[in-house]
C-alpha cells in the first residue's frame, strides 16, 4: 500500500511506540484504513495499493471546465484536442463555462453541478484549480487534471499554494493529476501495433517525446502519465497501476524528484513481484541537476547515492539518457526471457567484432567461447583462418549465399548462447540487405534474442527501415553503447526477477524484545556517550569489547585487571564526536601505572577542552581483523537507511560504502559487501586470514532492525570501527556514535 490517498505518506517518529503500547494506528491507504497486519514494525504500510485508474484513462464521461471555442485562445486548442480524444476512447464530453451556451456545437453548462450525469474525469482549464475542488467533490467526480502552473515549481509561495490544493483534494475524495501537467495523457496512440506495450510516466512532458516517437519504429505505446508536480497522484501510483495491466511489457519513467521514497519502493516491489521491468531516467546525479529538478517540479531529489541504491535494491533499471530509456524499455517490453546468459557476437568484420566484444565484456556481459564442436561446425562454412570462438568473424562472403542462414542458426543453437548480437557498421548492399533479412528470418525460428546494431548515420536504408524495423522479433539499435546497455539490463532484470523475494513479506510486524530496552537509552535531540551508544548495541545483540566505565584512577586500575591487559582507555561523554583528534584515546596500555597516568591525562584534557564526561572507558584491546563501518542515517525521502563499508579512517578517505533501505534480507546484506571496492580485504590478502563475513552480515541485519524500530528517532548511528575478526570468531563494535532526533 502506498501512503495516504492524496499525499505523501508521512512518518510519525512515535509510531513504533504506539504499536509497542498496544494502540492501533490507522493510516489511510488509497481511501481505506490499512489492516494492522499490513503494517511493519514502525507503522508503515508493507504492500502497495493499486489506484483504480481505469476511469482516468478510459472515462465514460468527461467535463472540460473552462472550455472554449474562441479562436486564438489557448483553451480552444485544448478543448478541440480533448474532444478528439474523448471520441477515440468512447467518452461523452461536456463543456463547462459560466458564460457560454455551447462550445463547438455541444451544449455548455455553467457549472459541474449542472451536468446531466456524474462524470469520471474533469479537465480543469482554469487558473486556480483550488476554487473548483469543492464543486467537483459535491458532484462526486472521480478524477481531475490541473494544468495550471505557479505552484511548488516557483518557490515557497507556490509550494504553500500547492499544499492548500493538496489538502483540499485529500478532503474531497477525488484524485488529482497535476498541477503543472499537460496534455500528454490525451495523445493519439497508434492502435495498429501488436505485442507488449511500453507505458510512459514523465514529470516533464517534453522528456517523454523520444519514447512516444518509438511508435513510428513499430514499438507499441499504451499509456502516458504526465505527473507534473504530483500534489496527489504520483509516479508510484502509475507504476503500481501499470504493473497490473496485462498488455504492458515495460514501464519507462522520467523522474525529476520522488514525492515519497517509501511509496516509490512499494510500487517498485509490486512491479518486481510481477516481473514487469521499470526503466528510469532519474535527474539529480549532480548538484546542478538536483537544483534544476527542484526548480522544475518543487520536489526533493534525495541523496543520489541512496536513490541509486534503492532503485537497484528493487530492480528499477536506471539509465542516463533518453535514448537509453527508449531502447532499453523497448527491448525489455518485447523480448522473451533468456534461455541462457551468454552473448555471441557475429560480424562480417574481425575489427567490428573485436571492438564490440571489448565494449561488451567491459560492461559485464559474458561472451563464452563456443565449444570445439560448434567451432568445427562453423568452419564448414567459414574459412579456417578466421576466428569463430566468439566473436564469430565470417569474413564477409558467406553472408551473400546459402551459408549465411546456416551460420546464424548454428550459433543460436549453442546452449550457452542466449543472445546473438550482430553489429552492422554501415550499409553495403546487397550483402547487408541479405544479412538483415537472414537475421530477421532466424529470429522468427528461435526463442533466443537477436539484436542488430545498424550503424549507418542515414537511417533511411530499406534494410533498416523496412526489414529490421518491420520485425517484432529483432531488437534494432543505432549505437553499440545503447545495445550493450539494453542487453545488460535485459539479462540482469531476468536474473533479478528469478531470485526476487520481496523484503516486505518478511519485514517485522512487531517490535523485538530489544525495543523497550533501547527506548530507555534514547535522548531526544542529544548525542549519546560512547558508553550509552554501546549499551544500545548490546540491547540489539551486537557484540562490544569487554569494558567498564570508571570515574577514578583506582577504579580504572581495577577495571584493567578485570578486562585483561593490554587495554584501551577512552573518555566517554555525550559531547565527544571525534575522540582521537582531541587526544582522548589511549591504546596498548600494559601496566597499572600506565592506566593511572592515562586516566589523569584523559580527564585533564576533558577539563581543558570544557568537555563533560560520564566517565572513562577501560576496554579490551582488539587488534586482529578488518575494520568496517556499519551505520544508519535518515534520508529525506526514504527515511532510515543502512550503510556498510571499509571503516576506521578509510571510510573518510576512500568512501567505499554500500547503502540499502530497510527492510531487506540476508541476500541484500551480502550484496552490499559484494559492491565494495575493497571486498577482497574480507577474503584475506597478503597472507591475512579471511574474516568472519557471516558475523558481519549478522551485524548489518541487527543494525537494520534498529533502523526499522528506532530509525525515526535516530538522526545518525555509526559503528566505526567494527572489527571483523578471522572466520569463526565474530565481529566486535569497538566504537559507536549515536545522535538522537
Gist?
InterPro entries: ATP-grasp (IPR011761), ATP_grasp_subdomain_1 (IPR013815), CoA-bd (IPR003781), NAD(P)-bd_dom_sf (IPR036291), Succ_CoA_lig_flav_dom (IPR032875), Succinyl-CoA_synth-like (IPR016102). The chain has 741 residues and is an alpha/beta fold.
Overview of this structure, please?
The chain starts with 14 loop residues before the first helix and ends with a strand. It is flat, with a radius of gyration of 31 Å. Helix 7 packs parallel to helix 8 (261-273) and helix 11 (322-334) packs across helix 17. The protein is an alpha/beta fold and 741 residues long. Strands 24, 25, 26, 27, 28 and 29 form a six-stranded antiparallel beta sheet that branches.
- Principal-axes geometry comes out as flat
**What structural category characterises the helix and strand content?**
alpha/beta
Strand content: 15-25%
Query: Mean pLDDT across all residues, rounded?
Result: 90
Cα radius of gyration in angstroms = 31 Å
Through-space gap between termini: 27 Å
Most strands sheet: 6 strands, antiparallel
Tally of alpha and pi helices? 25
Total E-strand runs = 29
Helix fraction, binned, reads 25-40%
Stretches where pLDDT is under 50 for at least 5 consecutive residues are: 1-36, 294-301
Strand and helix map with partners:
Layout: H1 15-20, E1 28-29, E2 32-33, H2 54-57, E3 61-65, H3 74-89, E4 92-96, E5 102-103, E6 106-107, E7 121-124, H4 130-138, E8 143-146, H5 156-172, E9 175-177, E10 197-202, H6 209-212, E11 221-226, H7 235-243, E12 248-255, H8 261-273, E13 278-282, H9 287-297, H10 304-313, E14 317-319, H11 322-334, E15 342-347, H12 350-362, H13 372-378, E16 392-393, H14 403-413, E17 417-424, H15 431-445, E18 449-454, H16 462-468, E19 474-477, H17 480-499, H18 514-519, H19 530-539, E20 547-550, H20 553-563, E21 567-572, E22 585-589, H21 592-609, E23 615-620, E24 626-635, E25 639-646, H22 650-653, E26 657-660, H23 666-675, H24 680-683, H25 693-710, E27 714-724, E28 731-733, E29 736-740
Parallel strand pairs: 3-4, 3-7, 7-8, 8-9, 10-11, 10-12, 12-13, 13-14, 15-16, 15-17, 17-18, 18-19
Antiparallel strand pairs: 1-2, 5-6, 20-23, 21-22, 21-23, 24-25, 24-27, 25-26, 27-28, 27-29
Helix pairs in contact: 4-5, 7-8, 11-17, 14-15, 15-16, 20-21
Amino acid at each position: 500500500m502506498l501512503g495516504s490517498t492524496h499525499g505523501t505518506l508521512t512518518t510519525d517518529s512515535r509510531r513504533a511506540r504506539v504499536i509497542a503500547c498496544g494502540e492501533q494506528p490507522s493510516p489511510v491507504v488509497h481511501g481505506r484504513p490499512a489492516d494492522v497486519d499490513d503494517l511493519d514494525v514502525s507503522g508503515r504500510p508493507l504492500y502497495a495499493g493499486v489506484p483504480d485508474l481505469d476511469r482516468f484513462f478510459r472515462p465514460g464521461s468527461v467535463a472540460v471546465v473552462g472550455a472554449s471555442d474562441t479562436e486564438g485562445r489557448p483553451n480552444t486548442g485544448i478543448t478541440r484536442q480533448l474532444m478528439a480524444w474523448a471520441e477515440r476512447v468512447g467518452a461523452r464530453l461536456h463543456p463547462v463555462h459560466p458564460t457560454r451556451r455551447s462550445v463547438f456545437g455541444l451544449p455548455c453548462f455553467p457549472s459541474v453541478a449542472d451536468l446531466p450525469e456524474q462524470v469520471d474525469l474533469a479537465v480543469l482549464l482554469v487558473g486556480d484549480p483550488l476554487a473548483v475542488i469543492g464543486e467537483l467533490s459535491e458532484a462526486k467526480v472521480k478524477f481531475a487534471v490541473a494544468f495550471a502552473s505557479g505552484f511548488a515549481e516557483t518557490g515557497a509561495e507556490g509550494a504553500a499554494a500547492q499544499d492548500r490544493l493538496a489538502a483540499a483534494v485529500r478532503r474531497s475524495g477525488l484524485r488529482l493529476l497535476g498541477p503543472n501537467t499537460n496534455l500528454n495523457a490525451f495523445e493519439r496512440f497508434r492502435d495498429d501495433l501488436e505485442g507488449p506495450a511500453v507505458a510512459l510516466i514523465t514529470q516533464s512532458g517534453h522528456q517523454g517525446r523520444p519514447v512516444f516517437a518509438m511508435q513510428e519504429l513499430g514499438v507499441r505505446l499504451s499509456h502516458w502519465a504526465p505527473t507534473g508536480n504530483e500534489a496527489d497522484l504520483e509516479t508510484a501510483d502509475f507504476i503500481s497501476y501499470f504493473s497490473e495491466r496485462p498488455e504492458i511489457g515495460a514501464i519507462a519513467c522520467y523522474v525529476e524528484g520522488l514525492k515519497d521514497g517509501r511509496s516509490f519502493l512499494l510500487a517498485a516491489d509490486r512491479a518486481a513481484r510481477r516481473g514487469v521491468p521499470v526503466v528510469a531516467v532519474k535527474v539529480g546525479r549532480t548538484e546542478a541537476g538536483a537544483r534544476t529538478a527542484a526548480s522544475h517540479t518543487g520536489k526533493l531529489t534525495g541523496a543520489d547515492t541512496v536513490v541509486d541504491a534503492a532503485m537497484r535494491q528493487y530492480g528499477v533499471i536506471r539509465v542516463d539518457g533518453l535514448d537509453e530509456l527508449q531502447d532499453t524499455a523497448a527491448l525489455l517490453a518485447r523480448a522473451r526471457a533468456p534461455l541462457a546468459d551468454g552473448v555471441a557476437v557475429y560480424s562480417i568484420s574481425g575489427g567490428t567484432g573485436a571492438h564490440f566484444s571489448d565494449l561488451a565484456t567491459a560492461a559485464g556481459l559474458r561472451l563464452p567461447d563456443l565449444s570445439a564442436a560448434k567451432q568445427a561446425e562453423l568452419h564448414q562454412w567459414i574459412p579456417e583462418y578466421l576466428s569463430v570462438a566468439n566473436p564469430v568473424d565470417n569474413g564477409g562472403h558467406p553472408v551473400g549465399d546459402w551459408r549465411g542462414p546456416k551460420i546464424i542458426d548454428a550459433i543460436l543453437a549453442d546452449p550457452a548462447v542466449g543472445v546473438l548480437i550482430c553489429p552492422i557498421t554501415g550499409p553495403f548492399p546487397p550483402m547487408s540487405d541479405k544479412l538483415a533479412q537472414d537475421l530477421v528470418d532466424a529470429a522468427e525460428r528461435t526463442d533466443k534474442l537477436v539484436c542488430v546494431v545498424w550503424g549507418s548515420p542515414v537511417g533511411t536504408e530499406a534494410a533498416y527501415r523496412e526489414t529490421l524495423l518491420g520485425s517484432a522479433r529483432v531488437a534494432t539499435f543505432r549505437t553499440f553503447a545503447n545495445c550493450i546497455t539494453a542487453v545488460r539490463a535485459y539479462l540482469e532484470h531476468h536474473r533479478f526477477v528469478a531470485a526476487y523475494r520481496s523484503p516486505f513479506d518478511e519485514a517485522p510486524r512487531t517490535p523485538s524484545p530489544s525495543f523497550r530496552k533501547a527506548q530507555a537509552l534514547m535522548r531526544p535531540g542529544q548525542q549519546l556517550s560512547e558508553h550509552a551508544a554501546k549499551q544500545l548495541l548490546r540491547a540489539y545483540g551486537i557484540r562490544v569489547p569487554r569494558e567498564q566505565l570508571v570515574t577514578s584512577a583506582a577504579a580504572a586500575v581495577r577495571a584493567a585487571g578485570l578486562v585483561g591487559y593490554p587495554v584501551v582507555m577512552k573518555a566517554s561523554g555525550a559531547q565527544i564526536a571525534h575522540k582521537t583528534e582531541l587526544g582522548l584515546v589511549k591504546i596498548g596500555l600494559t601496566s597499572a601505572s600506565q592506566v593511572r597516568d592515562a586516566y589523569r591525562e584523559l580527564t585533564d584534557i576533558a577539563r581543558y577542552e570544557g568537555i563533560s564526561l560520564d566517565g572513562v572507558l577501560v576496554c579490551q584491546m582488539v587488534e586482529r581483523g578488518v575494520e568496517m563501518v556499519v551505520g544508519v542515517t535518515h534520508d529525506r525521502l526514504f527515511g532510515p537507511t543502512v550503510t556498510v563499508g571499509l571503516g576506521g579512517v578509510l571510510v573518510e578517505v576512500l568512501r567505499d560504502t554500500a547503502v540499502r533501505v530497510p527492510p531487506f534480507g540476508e541476500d541484500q546484506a551480502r550484496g552490499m559487501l559484494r559492491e565494495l571496492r575493497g571486498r577482497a580485504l574480507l577474503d584475506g590478502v597478503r597472507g591475512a586470514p579471511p574474516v568472519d563475513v557471516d558475523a558481519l552480515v549478522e551485524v548489518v541485519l541487527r543494525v537494520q532492525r534498529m533502523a526499522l524500530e528506532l530509525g525515526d528517532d535516530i538522526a545518525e548511528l555509526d559503528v566505526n570501527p567494527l572489527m571483523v575478526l578471522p572466520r569463526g570468531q565474530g565481529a566486535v563494535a569497538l566504537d559507536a556514535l549515536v545522535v538522537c532526533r
